[in-house]
Design brief:
Length: 213
Amino acid sequence: MKVVLFDLDGTLIDSADDIALSLRLTLEELGKLDRMPPDVRSLIGGGVRALLEKVLWEEFEEEHVKVFRKHYLSNPVVYTRPYEGVPETLEELKEKGVRLAVVTNKLEELSVEILRRLDLLDLFDIVVGGDTFGEKKPSPLPVIKALEVIGAKPEESLMVGDTEADILAGKGAGTKTSLAGWGYVKNGSASPDFVLKSPREILSLAYPVSDAL
């Protein structure tokens, strides 16, 4: 594979505690702290709007996204850390000539800031958020657009993520797909090409041209 595209939350980073913190601060400001769910981890994957809709139901308003965004930008990396083996795997892929991208449903601004604070941003050719191209996973559009920017073909690319949305987006774009078994794992009925137990296993799927010659 010449290109590996990664989901962010539950794939590269464990951010559940910071998302829960920002959600709690948001609900507190809105006077709706009684709507705080006991398990935020199971609700992650669809982006900020989807999270708030799941929590607030009919009480959700678009303005609530701005409130959450404010709190998350103020507290993006309190507890968030890369999963074990992720930084080393990314660096080795980069050294071998594999192009790297992030395709997440998280807001682009938040994604970039988190990756910057974790010293991972410079490893990626592009960071695509849920608001970058107007559509988000499971739509294949963010994957297709990321590959267009990089200048790579889907058949030489791998999409790695921990949810059904990641697998469906990759398949729709024509890439190989891999389920990140170490993440939050909400795969549903999608059938990935590979199921990985650790980030290091990605190295066995990446075969850059320079190594093949």
